[in-house]
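Worked example 2:
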Amino acid sequence: MKTGRKKVGLALGGGGARGFSHIGVLSVLEQEGVDIDLIVGTSAGALVGGAYASGLSLKEVQTKIDTYLRSPEFDKSSLKTIGLSFSPTGKTSFQKVQTFLMNRYYLVRAFLKPSILPSEEFKSLVNYLLPDIDIRDTRIPFHAVATDLINGQEVILSEGSIRQAVLASASVPGAVEPVRWGDMLLADGSITSSVPVRAARRLGADIVIAVMIGRVLPKATDGDVDTATEIIYRAGEIAANKLEETELAGADVIIRPEVGDLHWSDFTRSADLIRNGENACRESLKSINIYLGRSERVPTFRRRLAGFFRRFFVREKK
């Protein structure tokens, strides 16, 4: 790193399938030659950020995800079944019956097991996308954020298996089984840090670019809070939203891709999400350039060329 250049940290937030937006954001940052000195990811942000930081190109990341989503393994998985139940797309009669029966099965499993998804299913996705390396060996310095269910604290994972770290960071409560890590029992980083801005600051970032892929808190109507279950759910949404606002206040630039009301397990709109990530990042380029002290008069192609050579030589050095 050149003397005097500010250290740029990228904080990638959680949101399940909405994490496809991160690919679009990273693509534009790469095209514009924005140097990223460290990546901190929560949940889906840890999955995409970890894959990119480990040395995979964005095309490779997208291809791997697309290939997995078309695979027989995913086609027969519980994760796909859950996603289809929340997808707004039309369903066949068989799919409707399948969804009804599986939802009953998941309800029973929730009372008997630590998660409704078999742990091997989600682990297979993580292992397919990420190399079997130590976090310290990534091309770009990378850190995953998780939550210790024992003491209730945020945990930054900066060494050890990148696969285990990402699995822990993305262990959605109730859906994916928590991960044992020494004396800790780790679950989704979004519990304590949906967008890891604080972690990026603690790890030395002078400028933090945050990518928020959570759904915007909708305004409720009287009909939305009629039952105890609805009230409890609404209260949880409000609490999570306020926590998110507090953390985002510490970011220099906030990128908010349009994700609508997409459920975290709905993997049917990957292309739209990637495109929305690109659009949101482009809209934020002016702010990014201001913080980086870059003149907008510098031709874009020069930035892209400089970025290409930097990435090329960094990879060759590794």
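Confidence is low (pLDDT under 50) at residues 104-112, 314-318. Residues 12 and 176 are 20 Å apart (CA to CA).
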